[in-house]
Write a structure and sequence with these properties.
alpha/beta
């Protein structure tokens, strides 16, 4: 393992995830690919939160699953603590997954309804102990289950209850406790509050922040709610059609968005100040989102952009520094190579 990671816990380079699709006939033939993730680069430093935001279908969850190797990337590199995951053996990948756990979006679907809370939280500990990666006794596992339940805001006396006996927010707390069971360094959070009521969302977000400070966690946090991403993230990457169009620290992105898509996205988010809200001019995008089964030589946002230029049609804008570490993929700020 390469320990010279410059403080980067996770580093992704040129990541692509293309899904083949076929015709609907009985003798189906491959017709093409869905370009879910189409060549992205980013890193996450230890202890920080990188937020990934964009419209539904832009490739956020596909990126997370490719990072976790739940989907094998078509191309690119995923480095966790300097270790390449895309070519890792099954044993090496399992050992790496001890340091990388997922909190899923839907707390109703991500928990096995036939398992008790104790079994759900301890399952990964049993698997990794059986594989020889951990060495935990049943007593130690039970103690850790109880500690985690109380840490995420659940009574230890509920450990023999089943998922259907809990509310949505409580189920997500179980999912968070399960992710913490192996003491990971990186948590991949796939819209973990989108299925919850607004009042519960704030509790879960505060829990994520408290856990990050207590356990020195690093988050890759996916959401489509701009307020959620702003609250939880140190840096934010904006995705559109499988590519990152802008990446910056949270405060600067919201104060000074550069990419036309980011500007339109932020203009659609309500501001809790009626005076500012009335004066604000919203950016209405024209046209439809292009199909993800088509690649084009130029900017993917070309058809919907009000600031497009001739060179945008046939030249693809790479993500480059527009100053101060604010990265943007737009020819308004740099020329084609």
């Amino acid at each position: 393992m390469d320990n010279n990671t410059n403080g980067k816990l996770l580093e992704v380079k040129g990541l692509k995830l293309h899904f083949p699709y076929t015709s609907g006939s009985l003798w189906a033939k491959k017709r093409g690919f869905i370009y879910a993730v189409d060549g992205i680069d980013f890193y996450i430093k230890k202890g920080e939160t990188l937020g990934l935001v964009g419209e539904s279908g832009c490739g956020k969850s596909s990126t997370l699953r490719a990072v976790a190797q739940l989907h094998k990337p078509t191309a690119g590199s995923v480095l966790l603590k300097g270790q390449e995951l895309t070519t890792a053996s099954s044993k090496a990948l399992m050992e790496a997954r001890k340091d990388m756990q997922i909190v899923f979006q839907d707390p109703y679907a991500s928990l096995n309804p036939r398992m008790t809370t104790r079994d759900i939280i301890s399952e990964s500990m049993k698997i990794f102990t059986k594989a020889g990666i951990l060495s935990l006794s049943k007593t130690e596992m039970d103690e850790r289950v109880e500690q985690l339940m109380e840490r995420v805001g659940l009574s230890r006396f509920f450990k023999n209850r089943y998922p259907h006996e809990f509310s949505g927010g409580q189920r997500q707390r179980i999912g968070i406790a399960r992710a913490l069971a192996l003491k990971p360094e990186l948590m991949l959070c796939d819209e973990p509050v989108s299925a919850l009521d607004v009042s519960i969302q704030s509790q879960i977000l505060n829990l994520f922040k408290d856990l990050q400070e207590e356990f020195e966690l690093t988050y890759m946090f996916i959401a489509h709610d701009l307020a959620v991403i702003q609250y939880i993230s140190n840096r934010i990457a904006v995705m559109y059609l499988g590519v990152i169009c802008e990446l910056s620290n949270s405060a600067e992105l919201y104060e000074k968005p550069l990419h036309p898509y980011t500007q339109a996205l932020l203009s659609a988010a309500p501001i809790p100040d009626p005076v500012v809200e009335r004066k604000r001019q919203r950016i209405i995008l024209s046209g439809d989102v292009p199909s993800p089964d088509q690649q084009r030589p130029g900017c993917y946002f070309y058809d919907r952009c009000s600031k497009r230029m001739d060179k945008c049609k046939n030249h693809f804008p790479k993500l480059k520094d527009a100053g101060g570490g604010h990265l943007v993929a737009c020819f308004l700020y740099h020329e084609p190579d």
